[in-house]
Design brief:
Elements: H1 3-25, H2 31-55, H3 71-96
Length: about 100
């Protein structure tokens, strides 16, 4: 599977997860509980990577060609920017809810 296609699929799924967590956040009154949603988003990121790989019969543990890394490490490296943007947006939305 092409890493760019993988990243695009991951971004779509994470956008949906982020929107779900924003809606969930509006129901939570405790600030600490709201911030814990960031950890939940991190878990969703990791789960989504594994789910997309499984759906496409993609072995995350296989060695990436010409590198000393697994496909999982390469995917994490290539998609961390997507995660960073979305988690920052989620943080902004979580902290702006009163």
């Amino acid at each position: 599977m092409d890493l760019d296609i993988f990243g695009a699929e991951l971004k779509q799924r994470l956008l949906m997860e982020k929107e779900y967590l924003v809606r969930e956040c509006s129901l939570i009154k405790d600030d600490q509980e709201r911030l814990e949603l960031l950890g939940k988003f991190n878990d969703k990121y990791k789960e989504a990577i594994k789910r997309i790989a499984d759906e496409n019969n993609f072995d995350l543990n296989a060695s990436y060609p010409f590198e000393d890394f697994s496909y999982e490490h390469m995917i994490l490296g290539k998609t961390m920017g997507i995660y960073d943007v979305l988690v920052e947006e989620l943080y902004e939305e979580i902290t702006s809810i009163n």
